[in-house]
Design goal:
Chain A is α/β, with parallel strands linked by helices. Chain A has 10 helices and 10 strands. In chain A, the strands form 2 sheets. A 6-stranded mixed beta sheet of chain A has the order 6-7-8-3-9-10, sandwiched between helices. Chain A has a 4-stranded antiparallel beta sheet with strand order 2-1-4-5, with helices on one face. The interface between B and C is large, with 47 and 44 residues.
């Protein structure tokens, strides 16, 4: 059970602050929301947490561990998984292969046994494909296992990304606009899965544009505008906050 | 003796600088490593030689022919090797591969045309006139070359920073999609960039052909490799960097040939490339933008 | 039989090219833009030739030394290059080929300079070459199906995704470089022991272009890609013998054509089409079952 904490995190590009003094906690077992109008700096926050961008000032911790300076791949190995706003799959590979790629941090076979094709290497491949198969079933995608990922619809591709992130068995999961472009019933079924995943003790940070979806799912919501935190609280508090209404409607 | 070698190094180095300038221009605007730049240089030298041999043209006409020949060839190259890839938004490796293919075609065609011979500019193209200055023997040709280089560099800077065409080029280099929104036609910009780059290479080809008194199909390859060293040492996309690094490489090269051996000179220059990549991959003058371009995120 | 015998040199050349193509393939599969295969092959060839002619060592020792030195060279190159973006890896490895060429041309005491090393005992024949290709190909297929191959594929397609899945890019680039260096070194050793003599210029720009063309044409994902590419580009010039002078023009044109019109190469394109067909067929079978 690990929480994700940001304290006073800032980052600027060429003198312009993109994220300014952000303090935020995503506790384990909850879905925490991060919302804000376009250009508020939400995706920058994701890139800062996942180590794709260097933090200018402040501290990021996962559980007890300070990960402010950690490289992106070290962070992923420490259990921080993410999805991408603009879906990034290996289009030519099958759905199953895409999901299996997510297990990378749990692979135990050493380099040498992989190099020489020892039985452990083949056994591991079978084991991972079975585990990936179980995930496909949970997302209702078993029928598509052998399809090239790039040939599927937008909603299906989003699910593949989600499965790949869950395959990492993360302690922190960052979802960057996971229901963008989905209809209500698709979004609803994903919401069920998010609650379920959070219920297993994962800290989920949900970055979304769709207010209604966030309100229905999150226990605590942070609102970002122009890189600054303008409000936070439970969905009702945030929904009433005049500053939030102004940020969304004023622009 | 040392001063004399330094002088020779500066002359050769300034031509390296001009050659590298064309290379770095394409990289800065289109993010393409044009591996065929050396063959454009070589064909530029052939164009200059051709007008001299056929029409008895004077020196400056040869330089002009090299510029036009190199420029047009670069535009054709862009059309066949890079434009289809740009349309498809292909990864940058594709343009390296396709320009290596193009350079191989241009190289072997030149080999066929010249039957693998080394050709020379006739002696009268630029008669040897030697000036004595403070004990140094300076050839008039060397002065003229440095003069041409200076004119070209200032011409390029003027074009890029003081004309509306130059503004368009810099705008596309900064962001192609934004430029399109501003109504800039990327086709026209690419045409200019490739023509200028090829023209610089062609002029360098004619000058090197006359200085070393030899024009042959393999002359571009060592120059391209040296251009890599120059642009990495100078920092990518940096015009002053290319010039300073060009001079530096020219001097290092000339001194090692004079005091060690020609073979060692190559090994030293290319080892320099490795050392720079190892210890300062952004080059001597590279800023923050080149950090992002050279190293991995 | 006589017909077959007259083609033995061609078959040997094709097998040698396949080994070189394997070396180029393994780096490209991992998303490394290395063009260093020719340099590693030169290192291997000269190691074997020098051990055989100057020290009279057995071919087995020579080839083992070529392989090990190739692997070491690959590792040494990988360390500085892992930090650099793709195009700079290409530049640096291109320079590496040039450095190797300067060394073999100018270190006359050891390499005999431009004349090359002659009088190497011929101890590898067609069968030996064939075995080497099968072993290396099988080895690469096994690696490709393992966790290493999976990591290579993700890195090549999307480095950001690879990193976000916890894949350490420098580690896998190091593995790819070591594999590429050892395969090319081994190929160079075999070549030295099968051709009596080696010269520096065999391992220059021409080899670099040819090997690159083979992999780009054949494909970079399936291990059959380099095999098919090498076979085509070795046999094609023989069929076009009347146009001998234009053989290099043709190789350059193939390279350009392949990257522009067939960016995934023959084998991988064919594989994707076949896979799409199979999915469509099973889909059709399902709908049929439902309607019946």
């Amino acid at each position: 059970m690990k929480a994700l904490c940001l304290s006073d995190v800032s980052r600027s590009f060429g003198g312009l602050p993109a994220v300014d003094g952000l303090t935020l906690t995503a506790p384990a077992g909850r879905v925490t929301g991060l919302i804000g109008p376009n250009g508020a700096g939400k995706t920058t926050v994701v890139n800062l947490i996942t180590g794709l961008l260097k933090v200018g000032r402040g501290r990021i911790t996962v559980g007890e561990r300070d990960v402010t300076e950690a490289s992106a791949s070290a962070l992923a190995r420490a259990g921080v998984a993410r999805t991408f706003q603009n879906i990034r799959l290996i289009a030519d590979a099958t759905v199953l292969e895409n999901v299996v790629a997510g297990f990378h941090r749990h692979e135990t076979t050493g380099v040498l046994s992989n190099l020489f094709g020892l039985p452990s290497s083949f056994a591991e491949r079978r084991r991972l494909e079975e585990k990936a198969g179980a995930l496909l079933e949970r997302f209702g995608m078993t029928a598509f296992a052998a399809h090239p990922a790039g040939s599927l619809s937008y909603g299906h591709q989003r699910r593949i990304e989600m499965m790949r992130a869950l395959a990492m068995d993360p302690s922190v999961l960052l979802l960057d606009e996971p229901v963008a472009g989905m209809n209500d019933s698709e979004a609803h079924s994903l919401a069920e899965i998010f609650r379920d995943v959070a219920g297993q003790g994962v800290a989920i940070l949900l970055i979304e544009h769709n207010m209604r979806f966030v309100m229905s799912l999150c226990t605590h919501i942070y609102v970002l505008a122009s890189g600054r935190l303008i409000s936070d609280g439970d969905p009702e508090e945030v929904g009433r906050d005049p500053k939030v209404i102004e940020a969304y409607l004023g622009s | 003796m040392l001063m004399q070698q330094l002088l020779n190094g500066i002359v050769v180095g300034s031509v390296y600088g001009v050659f590298a300038l064309g290379f770095t221009l394409i990289f800065g605007v289109n993010h393409i490593m044009n591996m065929a730049h050396g063959t454009i240089f070589m064909w530029g030298a052939f164009a200059g030689l051709f007008v001299v041999l056929t029409f008895d043209a004077p020196f400056l006409a040869a330089v002009l022919a090299g510029a036009i020949g190199g420029g047009l060839l670069a535009v054709v190259l862009d059309f066949f090797a890079f434009r289809p890839l740009r349309k498809r938004n292909a990864p940058e490796f594709s343009s390296i591969v396709s320009s290596i293919g193009a350079s191989f075609i241009l190289l072997s065609l030149a080999q066929q045309v010249t039957a693998t011979r080394v050709l020379r500019f006739p002696f009268e193209t630029f008669p040897v006139v030697i000036l004595n200055f403070m004990g140094l023997r300076i050839q008039l040709l060397q002065l003229v070359i440095v003069g041409i280089v200076v004119v070209m560099v200032f011409g390029l800077l003027f074009y890029l920073y003081r004309t509306s065409y130059g503004r368009q080029i810099r705008s596309v280099a900064f962001s192609e999609s934004t430029s399109k929104l501003l109504g800039i036609n990327p086709m026209a910009v690419n045409f200019q960039v490739f023509f200028i780059s090829g023209a610089l290479a062609g002029i360098a080809g004619v000058l090197i052909g006359i200085v070393f008194n030899s024009v042959h199909f393999m002359m571009g390859e060592p120059l391209l490799l040296r251009a890599f060293v120059v642009i990495i040492l100078g920092g990518l996309g940096s015009i002053p960097g290319a010039l300073i690094a060009g001079l530096l490489i020219g001097i290092v090269q000339t001194l090692s040939v004079a005091y060690l051996s020609a073979g060692m000179a190559d090994a030293i220059v290319f080892s320099l490339l490795f050392l720079v990549l190892l210890f300062r991959p952004t080059g001597l003058l590279g800023g923050a933008t080149s950090v992002a371009r050279v190293t991995r995120s | 039989m006589k017909f077959f015998l007259s083609y033995i040199p061609l078959f040997e050349l094709a097998l040698f090219n396949m080994l070189l193509a394997f070396s180029q393939y393994v780096v490209l599969r991992a998303g490394v833009f290395s063009l260093g295969t020719a340099a590693f092959a030169a290192l291997g060839a000269y190691t074997s030739a020098i051990l055989a002619t100057k020290l009279g060592m057995s071919p087995w020792i020579g080839m083992a030394a070529s392989l090990v030195l190739g692997a070491i060279a690959g590792a040494l190159v990988a360390i500085p290059l892992a930090r650099l973006r793709g195009v700079f890896q290409a530049l640096a490895t291109l320079a590496l080929v040039q450095i190797m060429l300067s060394i073999t041309l100018n270190w006359v005491d050891v390499t005999e300079g431009a004349l090359g090393i002659n009088g190497i005992p011929r101890s590898v024949g067609l069968f030996g070459m064939f075995c080497a290709v099968v072993v290396v190909g099988y080895f690469l297929a096994v690696i490709g199906a393992s966790s290493i191959g999976r990591a290579f594929d993700v890195i090549r397609e999307d480095e950001t995704v690879a990193v976000s899945l916890g894949i350490s890019v420098p580690k896998y680039h190091l593995i790819a470089f070591i594999l590429s260096g050892s395969i090319a070194g081994f190929a160079g050793g075999l070549h030295a022991f099968s051709s009596y003599s080696i010269t520096p210029n065999e391992y220059g720009f021409h080899m670099l272009v040819m090997v690159l063309a083979m992999v780009v044409l054949g494909g970079r994902v399936s291990v059959w890609g380099p095999v098919v590419g090498a076979a085509i580009l070795t046999v094609l010039p023989e069929l076009l013998r009347g146009f001998q002078e234009y053989r290099m023009v043709m190789q350059g044109a193939v390279l350009m054509f392949a990257i522009v019109f067939l960016p995934r190469g023959i084998v991988d394109t064919a594989k994707n089409i076949w896979r799409a067909r199979r999915v469509a067929a099973s889909e059709a079978a399902k709908t049929k079952a439902v309607t019946v």
